[in-house]
Write a structure and sequence with these properties.
alpha/beta
């Protein structure tokens, strides 16, 4: 099977894990702090603003929770997004309000977001589809002017930039996912950036039971009578640990090589698929943007998309569509009509893209895709 996603882990990561075993401290500790510091350097921000967490979803929940939203408040977000973002908003007592996207990039413009704003809007939760930054700089500027908090869901864009500035640092808070399908993986895990220092300190407390100091963390002896508790508000336990942080630190060092290989694969896809009739490729990036290349997506007539996916699966090539439109999910109670989102959702397919993909695999995917599009197109009379 040619996998859609596949992590690249090996001897360096094993050696880092062995070091943790030898030190006999697997929990939240000095390696966690070192990983947070290294990622802060990658972003170009202060180390105390970055938290390593148990998952990206935990980061989204903490980010939204820290805003103090209540019933009647609204958070605008693209419908073409991962469900954890909408779940985080709903769990806070607020309401997710979905906006449309560009049908080619799957990223919203400010006009798309503005059309969904109401007097009850408190925040915007922005995804960068497939690692492409989209209009994040413009959207951040408008959010500041309107007094709206901007949360960047940067799960797809760990190495993306606009004008040399790292995506995730344009808004007030940002989350990165490090699960097993991500470019940089710790198996499970996530990172959260909080721009404001006081808010960052509060979020750090909320991530560990609401405690005001490192009470109960076995590697730390921080004060006289360190076992005594001070809990000004209730939190949960979603902190990362030294075992996974050790893996993450190695992966972060390897990130440039990962992204470089993914860029090579994207360029090969572009070359091999440029002349396939009935197939549309991702639009080119603006000159001052760089992408993490998390997704490579193609678009075709909705009448053949599912059949093409089935043909590729029969040839041991795994594809998918991400993300299923959230305004169609009954749990979120949306009545939005989003024609561009619906059009993109009907005809888009994400191809295998990971840094372990060989050149022969890429050629196999493109050849089989060409054949499937042509055959399905003939069958429905679109070829």
């Amino acid at each position: 099977m040619i996998n859609l996603f596949q992590p690249a882990v090996g001897d360096e990561e094993l050696s880092a894990v062995a070091d943790v075993f030898r030190d006999k401290w697997l929990g939240h500790g000095p390696r966690t702090k070192a990983f947070e510091t290294a990622f802060a350097e990658h972003l170009g921000v202060e180390p105390d603003r970055v938290l390593f967490l148990a998952s990206g979803t935990a980061g989204l929940f903490l980010a939204v929770e820290s805003l103090g939203l209540a019933g009647g408040d609204e958070v605008v977000m693209p419908s073409m997004s991962f469900l954890a973002a909408a779940n985080a908003v709903l769990a806070s007592g607020a309401r997710p309000v979905f906006c449309d996207v560009d049908p080619r990039t799957m990223n919203p413009s400010w006009d798309d977001i503005e059309a969904a704003l109401t007097p009850r809007t408190r925040a915007v939760l922005l995804l960068h589809y497939g690692g492409q930054p989209g209009h994040v700089a413009e959207i951040a500027g408008h959010c500041r002017e309107r007094g709206l908090t901007l949360i960047e869901d940067s799960a797809c864009s760990i190495a993306s930039t606009v004008g040399g500035r790292t995506v995730g640092t344009f808004g007030d808070l940002a989350m990165w996912s490090l699960d097993a399908a991500k470019i940089l993986t710790t198996g499970d895990g996530g990172l959260l950036y909080v721009r404001d220092a006081e808010q960052a300190a509060r979020v750090r407390r909320l991530a560990y039971h609401g405690l005001t100091r490192a009470t109960g963390l076995g590697y730390a002896r921080v004060s006289h009578r360190w076992w005594e508790l001070e809990v000004p508000e209730i939190g949960r336990r979603v902190i990362g640990n030294d075992l996974t942080a050790a893996i993450g630190t190695v992966q972060l060092r390897r990130l440039p090589e990962f992204v470089a290989r993914r860029r090579e694969i994207v360029e090969r896809y572009d070359q091999e698929l440029a002349d396939v009739a009935g197939l549309r490729l991702p639009p080119p990036l603006p000159g001052h943007h760089t992408s993490s290349h998390y997704f490579y997506w193609v678009q075709m007539d909705a009448a053949i998309r599912d059949g093409v996916a089935a043909d590729l699966l029969a040839a041991d090539i795994y594809t998918t569509f991400r993300y299923a439109p959230l305004h169609k999910v009954s749990a979120y109670g949306s009545d939005k009509v989003l024609p561009a989102t619906d059009r993109a959702a009907g005809g888009t397919l994400c191809l295998p893209l990971h840094h372990g993909l060989g050149d022969d695999d890429v050629l196999t995917v493109t050849r089989r895709l060409h054949e499937a599009v042509a055959a399905r197109g003939r069958a429905v009379g679109t070829a």
